[in-house]
Amino acid sequence: MRATVKRPATLLARTNLVLGVSATALALTSIIALAVFVILPIEERSADDEAGLIVLSAKTWVELDAARRPAFEIELLENHDLIISAEPRDLPRVDEGNRYYELIESKLSERLDGPIRLMESDDLLWADVPMGNYVMQIGFSSQRRDVQPVYVGVVIILMGAIIVAATSGIIVRRVAGPLSRTAEAVEAFRGAGGFQALPEEGPEELVTLAASFNAMARDVSELLTNRTTLLAGISHDLRTPLTRMRFAVELLPDEVDPQVVERFERNLTAMEELISDALRFSRGAGEEPHQVDFREYLESVVANIDEELRVDWRVSPPGSVRIATGAFQRVVGNLVRNAQQHGGGAEVAVVCGDDIAVHVIDDGPGIPEAERDNVFQPFYRLDTSRSRATGGSGLGLAIVSQLCQAHGWTVTLGSGADGGTDACVVVPLGTGLSMERQEESVTK
After folding, report:
1. CA distances from 358 to 54, 201, 232, 317 (A)
2. Taking a C-beta distance cutoff of 8 angstroms, is the pair 134, 116 a contact?
């Protein structure tokens, strides 16, 4: 089974990864090119010069008379760090694996027409150099003894990675900051008026993005406001002809078929429900939130719907919550009435943590998982559990969904513990509750 590599999620991490890989490849390329075209030729030239100096010094020493050799040896020591000894000693060989030492051995062997082996003693390198009738032992100090190219390459790569991470962090933050603010604005935008316009600053692309979002948000807000105003106006104006129609039905002669009158009254009632739902939605969508005592508020909302219905508080809510009271009342009311009408009864339970979750649970047949998104569409009915004979405008859950979207709440449908449907409305809180409350909620 092959393991999948998880890609970084954030723009900063992805940019750092790309730049880090690029910087590493660039550093490796630079090191290889520097070694092949600069270091290795210089190293070979240096070894050749060192070998040439050793051979030339040995040849000069042999050609000098005995009286002048001590002065020459002193000059070599002071100016070239070379020591010439006419009495060879048995010294240990240098360790293998040092390319520069191997180069010196090779260059000396070429110049002296015979194999030369380097030895090591007293922090110096020594070579037995046959010259004339002498075999001299010449010691010299290698300036490349402590050079470690591998460590140098590692340092270059690490420093390059650190520099790339720092610079990419600065660059990406300047880009990711506005993008994060844009993402938050898009997520918070619900189509209502009064949105916070994004600052149009920074690089040209981000300015264009912010300006486009601001223009789109203004157009959408204006469109939704006009739609809501139009819906409210039409619904309000329809009440007058509807009332006239009711008066006309009441004034029908007695000889009119009672079944025809009943059908007219049913149709008028359905129209009134549609108009009332439209008015409730138009009022709730544009409502501004304000602070309320949530426990007292929700209990009063539930009591107004059904005096016998009680709220099961799994955890005590925070004392004060900022919420659009009218819209939330319509959401809870529609869910409770829907549960009572189609689910055989309703139970209201509240779970508090970082958010407030209000559950409306019924004992009905439940809603299939595949249909749970569809029931929020206007006039959508389930064949097995809904019918026009049960009444209702068909807009109840659609209004719940629209009001939740308008105010930043979330509504989901699930299965209850004993069957039936669990409709859950989550209201985000600015600050979470204490850990004790969350643990108490989980325990219950």
Report:
1. 93, 41, 28, 11
2. no
Are 301 and 421 members of one domain? Answer: yes
Region label for 14, one of left (φ > 0), alpha (ψ between -120 and 50) or beta (otherwise): alpha
Percentage of the residues of the chain whose pLDDT score is greater than 70: 80
Same domain, 106 and 206: no
**Residue 89 lies in domain:** 11-150
Number of other CB atoms surrounding residue 27 within 10 Å: 19
Q: Would you say residue 177 lies in a domain?
A: no
Lowest mean pLDDT segment, chosen from 29-33, 138-142, 158-162, 440-444: 440-444
Please name the residues in contact with 150: beta carbons below 8 A apart, sequence gap of 6 or more. Answer: none
Residue 184 domain flag: no
Q: Give the Cα-Cα-Cα angle 7, 187, 287 (nearest 5 degrees).
A: 165
**What is the total residue count of the chain?**
444
Q: Are residues 203 and 240 in the same domain?
A: yes
Which residue type occupies 20? Answer: G
| Gap between the Cα atoms of 60 and 440, Å rounded | 96
CA distance 267 to 203: 60
Which tops the pLDDT comparison, 158 or 436?
Answer: 158
Pair 307, 439 in one domain: yes
Residue 431: the pLDDT is: 38
My answer on whether 294 and 401 are in the same domain is yes
Q: pLDDT of 317-370, one tens digit each? A: 777 888 888 889 888 988 898 888 877 788 899 988 888 999 998 888 888 888
Q: Residues 39-49: what's their mean pLDDT?
A: 85
Residue 176 lies in a domain: no
Binning pLDDT at 50, 70 and 90, where does residue 87 land?
Answer: confident
